[in-house]
Design brief:
Layout: H1 5-19, H2 29-38, E1 45-50, E2 54-55, E3 58-59, E4 63-72, E5 78-81, E6 96-101, H3 102-105, E7 109-110, E8 132-133, H4 136-140, E9 146-156, E10 159-167, E11 174-180, H5 187-205, E12 212-218, H6 222-238, E13 239-245, E14 254-257, H7 265-275, E15 281-284, H8 294-297, E16 306-310, H9 327-330, H10 332-351, E17 354-357, H11 394-405, E18 407-411, H12 412-418, H13 423-435, E19 439-443, H14 450-457
Parallel strand pairs: 7-8, 11-12, 11-13, 13-16, 14-15
Antiparallel strand pairs: 1-10, 2-3, 4-5, 4-9, 6-9, 10-12, 14-16, 17-18, 17-19
């Protein structure tokens, strides 16, 4: 199907509007509803892990059920209502139905003094608490007297849910795309990741692929730990590279957080593309101190080649973890730009790899293939070849470099560096050489080429 940019933008906006009102958490109906909606865009296989199940050093908590949460003032007026904004209730709040003084209530109210109009996002997944989040301006205007705090919630033995989808390629080697689906009504810090992932899936699904792809949608931290508990061995065996997608909205350029390895295929390709101005962005060092699910994928027992891609990075903008994180701040256009740029990164990784010159003994006679200049004379800088390129010998030079270093020991990115250009400048030439059967590839790993090289020698 031909790519329609305007139609995609409309569909991204529609998906956002469906997902934003849902009260998500690390378990529960909101999480399942979110996965069901995403399944309309990505053919997800869903999984459930029962409450009380041990996953490495963690235990799956009980499922949280929230029905209603209302706080009324001494005059019977509603101060906050969960139905108006689902950030108003402390996520994973235990039930309460009690009348109390303002002094008794205050420890259960959450606000941000320096962002007085914002409703904070507050959670307490693993310790029982109850509470309400309100704008600080509203909190300061509360009158003395008795308040009625009512939260209709419960904890049940249920399950934690997550989902994945795979796109098969020519290679068993996989590229992981992971994002989380557990924050309620936050735009950049929640929906930017899964929406970008969903439409990246659709783009990749519409074209031939060398690598296989694994798209994962999980509740943050406990979800990735649960996923690794089940699929960690498969990732250790097959994962070529990976990205955690988070905070991909806003006006900033992309910001990439390296994997723990610091030399994963994504680490190296990102730096290469930025250096040669194919992509604009910054690089952050890996740290386990903050971030998202890359901390779990890169935990020392797994140490997977997984980085993290953001745009407006968590904690660096006013709306982080509060109600100022809106669609207007995030913008759907920024998400589409994120898909565009991720597609560039992935295409470069698709074409990177090891190539083999099919005639490695001496130089290839390029004029047989219409790839050597038809005219060459002293004092003439223009060189013409049958593909009508007039590039002052640049194409010929790059062809010769590719052929000489297509020995199963140099990746295309390494050859591009020798050519002092981006891998993207070499991809069109590689396509020509492959079509003319002058080279073979790309191959995933150097060691896979042994038998192929033996065949060429014979």
């Amino acid at each position: 199907m031909e790519y329609d940019e305007d139609r995609e933008l409309i569909e991204m906006d529609r998906l956002f509007d469906r997902l934003f009102p849902i009260c998500r958490s690390i378990t529960g109906a909101g999480l399942r509803e979110t996965l069901n909606i995403l399944s309309e865009y990505v053919p997800l296989e869903q999984f459930g892990v029962k409450s009380g199940t041990r996953v490495f050093d963690w235990v799956i908590p009980q499922e949280w059920v929230i029905r209603e949460a209302v706080l009324k003032n001494p005059f019977g007026d509603t101060v906050v209502n969960f139905r108006d904004h689902n950030l108003h209730v402390l996520n994973y709040s235990e039930p309460i139905d009690k009348v109390m003084s303002l002094e008794e209530l205050q420890p259960h109210l959450y606000s941000i003094p320096e962002k007085a109009d914002a409703i904070p996002y507050v959670t307490s997944y693993y310790k029982k608490r109850w509470g309400f989040s309100i704008p600080h301006n509203q909190r300061e205007q509360l009158s003395e007297g008795n308040y009625h705090a009512y939260i209709d919630s419960e904890f049940i033995d249920g399950e934690l849910n997550y989902a994945h989808a795979t796109l098969k390629g020519k290679s068993m080697k996989e590229i992981l795309i992971s994002s989380y689906v557990c924050h309620p009504s936050l735009a950049n810090n929640e929906l930017s990741g899964p929406i970008t992932a969903a439409f990246l899936y659709q783009r990749l699904n519409s074209k031939p692929r060398r690598f296989s792809y694994r798209f994962v949608f999980i509740p943050e931290t406990i979800g990735s730990i649960s996923y690794l508990n089940k699929f960690g061995d498969a990732l250790l065996e097959n994962l070529h590279a990976g990205l955690v997608l988070t905070c991909l909205g806003g006006e900033n350029a992309l910001s990439y957080k390296e994997s723990r390895r610091e030399d994963s295929p994504t680490d190296l390709m990102w730096k290469h593309l930025v250096q040669y101005n194919e992509l604009e962005g910054s690089t952050r060092e890996f740290t386990p101190v903050n971030g998202s699910d890359e901390r779990q994928y890169c935990s020392p027992g797994f140490n997977l080649p997984v980085g993290q891609m953001s745009r407006t990075v968590y904690a660096d903008y006013d709306g982080y973890h509060n109600s100022l994180d809106t669609k207007e701040f995030m913008t759907i256009e920024a998400l589409q730009q994120s898909v565009n740029e991720l597609e560039i990164l992935i295409e470069a990784m698709e074409w990177d790899g090891y190539y083999l010159n099919n005639t490695p003994f001496g130089e290839v006679k390029l004029d047989k293939h219409g790839l050597y200049p038809d005219f060459n004379a002293h004092g003439k800088t223009e060189l013409f070849s049958s593909n009508d390129l007039n590039d002052h010998r640049m194409q010929l030079s790059r062809i010769l470099m590719i052929l000489n270093y297509s020995d199963g020991k140099h990746t295309l990115m390494e050859i591009a560096i020798k050519c002092e250009c981006s891998i993207y400048r070499l991809i069109p030439i590689v396509k020509v050489l492959l079509n003319k059967d002058i080279i073979s590839g790309p191959f995933d790993e150097e060691q896979n080429l042994f038998h192929r090289k033996e065949d060429l020698i014979k």
